[in-house]
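Hi,

Apologies if this is the wrong queue. I'm a grad student, and the batch job for 5-demethoxyubiquinone hydroxylase, mitochondrial from Psilocybe cyanescens produced an output file that my downstream script rejects. I'm not sure whether the problem is my script or the file. Here is the sequence I used:
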Amino acid sequence: MPKCVQTLTTVARTLPSNAYTTLHANKTLAVHSTPQDLTYAQRNMLDSALRVDQAGEIAANYIYKGQLAVLRHDKKVGHLIQEMWDQEKKHLAVMDKLQVQHNVRPTVLSEVAKVAGFSLGAVTAFMGKEAAMACTEAVETVIGEHYDDQMKELDSFQTSHPSVPLLKSVIREFRDDELDHLDIAVVNFSQRAPAHALLSSVVGGGCKVAIELCKRF
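Support response: The file is valid. Your script probably expects a header line. Output copied below for reference.
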């Protein structure tokens, strides 16, 4: 099995999200302004997308926090959970900046996302490391599909504002990160979890409901 799906590795490459984490790019239009020529429907689409993405990254952070609270000292998966959590921390930091840049209000359900995320992470970790990985597999499957849908929606935007192609690139980067997490979960025996199909269905279904709620609230 390739090493890249067994563990996360640091690769020396330029990432789109670095535009939000490096000082030299902070004054560019792409990271400092929002399009003014979007239609009403497109603006609503952008608002709901970033609101959901920020909420999703909050929940992901707390899922991994809950898992690590239980499995921190596990020699096989503890370091993997920490590395995935570290990536999610960056995702959230970037989404926080995007939310401010595009004048998007955060979801009123952010505290719910924290409690639900931590509870889900801790409970599945208590069920065993395979169940924790099954949780990651289910969550990242839904999030990967969700990011794919967002990129298709952004393709319909008729604007020359540089923030839109940058946003698409950031979403693609984060989508790829989430799919890497999914691969890591599968390699680490997520599908050996007790009642894997049921667990995946419940967790994935819950994620889809949360996405729809955060779009609206």
